[in-house]
């Protein structure tokens, strides 16, 4: 219990990790905890678009743990190529430190979910990754491309990032493609 409580107190820091994504009401940037909650809710609501092999409970667990390592590693903006140079090393070091707080069996389970999500190889991880990318995408659409415009993001970068949706949620892909094309027409994304 002592280890579990220490871990739960430590991950409260997720509430202080700001992401680049703006809230839909445009009052402020979202934090990691809000993103993880929204990701989990979206994964539940949109589950009918997941493949038949996808286990909803495992996806929801991934949603809850996928960004825990950012407590120490910080958030790396999706389109920050320089930030991605050492992202894996920072996150691995963070995982080593954070998951070691828990009792071994729980630390191993949660780290395994985090690693599976990160690898994007299983149907569960592919669906989870698609939702993880869809959540800030929708916020960008609803804020007039706020983050994209602020960071000079190009449409090909968004297409590359959103390919996870095309693969894991093919029924949703046409809507995403239309939104990207509309964002180009409106000048939110450069072609």
Descriptive notes:
By secondary structure, the protein is mainly α. Helices cover 64% and strands 4% of the residues. It has eleven helices and two strands. The chain has helices at 2-10, 32-45, 56-65, 70-73, 81-84, 87-99, 104-119, 123-142, 146-150, 155-168, 173-186; strands spanning 18-22, 29-31. Strands 1-2 form a two-stranded antiparallel sheet. A hairpin with a 6-residue loop joins strand 1 (18-22) and strand 2 (29-31). Helix 2 (32-45) packs antiparallel against helix 3 (56-65), helix 7 (104-119) crosses helix 8 and helix 8 crosses helix 10 (155-168). The model has no long low-confidence stretch (mean pLDDT 96).
Q: Class by helix and strand content?
A: mainly alpha
Specify the helix fraction band: 55-70%
DSSP strand tally: 2
Widest sheet: strand ordering: 1-2
- How can the largest sheet be summarized? 2 strands, antiparallel
**Given the C-alpha coordinates, what overall shape results?**
globular
N-to-C series of helices and strands: HEEHHHHHHHHHH
Nearest-integer average pLDDT: 96
| Radius of gyration (Å) | 17 Å
Number of helices: 11
Q: Termini separation (Å)?
A: 53 Å
The low-confidence runs, each spanning 5 or more residues with pLDDT under 50, are: none
Strand content: under 5%
